[in-house]
Amino acid sequence: MLETSARLLRLLSLFQAQRYWSGADLAERLEVTARTLRRDVDKLRSLGYPVNSASGTAGGYQLAAGATLPPLLLDDEEAVAVAVGLRTAASGTVSGIAEASVRALTKMQQVLPERLRRRVTALHASIEPLAYTGPVVDAEVLALIAGACRDCEKLRFRYQARDGAASHREVEPHRLVHLGRRWYLAAWDLERNNWRTFRLDRIQARPAAGQRFTPRAAPDGDFAAYVARSVSTAGYEYQAVVLFHAPAEKLAERLPAAAGKIDAVDEHTCLLRTGGTSLDMVSMYLAWTGLEFEVRDPPELVERLRVLADRFRRAAGGNNFRGNRGLE
Questions:
Q1: Residue 159: half-sphere exposure toward Cβ, Cα within 13 Å
Q2: Domain boundaries in the chain?
Q3: What confidence category does residue 104 fall into, taking pLDDT thresholds of 50, 70 and 90?
Q4: pLDDT by residue (tens digit) across 136-149?
Q5: CA 211 to CA 128: how far, in whole Å?
Q6: Based on C-alpha coordinates, what's the Rg of the chain?
Q7: Counting beta carbons within 10 angstroms of the beta carbon of residue 261, is it exposed (0 to 12), middle (13 to 18) or buried (19 or more)?
Q8: Model pTM?
Q9: Same CATH fold, 143-229 and 4-63?
């Protein structure tokens, strides 16, 4: 159990993360009894922090709106997590934050206790992020869209589709999803009267915020799953349905979330619905699993797998290629 002073700082840190906590959740986080938690809350009140409480099964503690908190408090794990995030941000998918990340990390290291400074310095020296050269998202655009999701404000923007066609969209933004190396917005398209997924790097110029809207329930109850499903199939020229002779859980462990939608058939088999810009791309995902499978659709994928199998067989046999062999 933490000492009282350290526990009070931890309690304030938790209130910085969110203003309302159930008593049970706070006691579990602090590893104390409900009685000790009540004493700690009373101590905070005596120090001038307005903490409201409610009794009963649904009771809990809430820091009063507008209450002034001390400077940002981070526990050891949070400090290391922030340092790692700042270190890797410069090579990430959001533009315009590299220099700010370095400045923030430098300031943070100056105020960290010695034990944490050594850990952060070791991480800083050991981590070498892989340089990213793909599309990036503007930091201001990302922040603006995140704010619209939080405040339930409609957005208007110009969007460039996969085929290059541009259109004006008005949406109700609900969630930002970071999938692979891409940022996506899950939103209700007001003109099409349906859910849509938008890649943030294809949003042109700065979106304009509009009226408030009433939030909708997530499609199938999960925004992240909806985006992963949309990205893996929608808009691709080649669509495939593949039966795997393995449990759905095992296949999910071997494929990235964006690779496709997995449905269990029974405890031993599952169906993968996926898509790609080419049959070779789809074939790569299938081979990547290392599992036995049968292609249900399309027939062209079966033929492409035969061509690739012949190519790999020749390579494995050590035969020399002549002319245009292997260039099917």
A1: 19
A2: 4-63, 76-126, 143-229, 236-317
A3: confident
A4: 888 888 889 998 99
A5: 44
A6: 26
A7: middle
A8: 0.58
A9: no
Give the integer Cα–Cα distance in Å for 171 and 232: 22
3-class state of residue 197 by DSSP = strand
pLDDT averaged over the chain? 83
Summarize pLDDT for 263-275 with one digit per residue, the tens. Answer: 899 999 999 988 8
Query: 236-317, which class in CATH?
Result: alpha beta
Q: Which residues pair with 194 in a beta bridge?
A: 189
pLDDT in tens, 166-175: 999 999 999 9
Residue with tokens 């409201």: 52
Find, among 187, 178, 183, the residue nearest to 213 by Cα: 187
> Which residue would you say has higher pLDDT here, 45 or 181?
45
> pLDDT tens digits, residue range 204-237?
878 998 899 999 999 878 898 888 878 776 667 7
Side chain identity at residue 224, one-letter code: A
CATH hierarchy code of domain 4-63 = 1.10.10.10
For position 298, what pLDDT does the model report? 92
List % helix, strand, coil for the chain (3-state, nearest 5): 45, 25, 30
Q: How far apart are CA 327 and CA 324, in angstroms?
A: 6
From residue 50, how far is each of 41, 47, 57, 225 by CA, in Å?
9, 9, 22, 40
Q: Tell me the CATH number for domain 143-229.
A: 2.30.30
Tokens linked to 228: 């992963």
Let me know: does 80 contact 123? Beta carbons within 8 Å. yes
Retrieve residue 60's tokens.
């809990």
Does residue 81 come out as left (phi exceeding 0), alpha (psi in the -120 to 50 range) or beta?
A: alpha
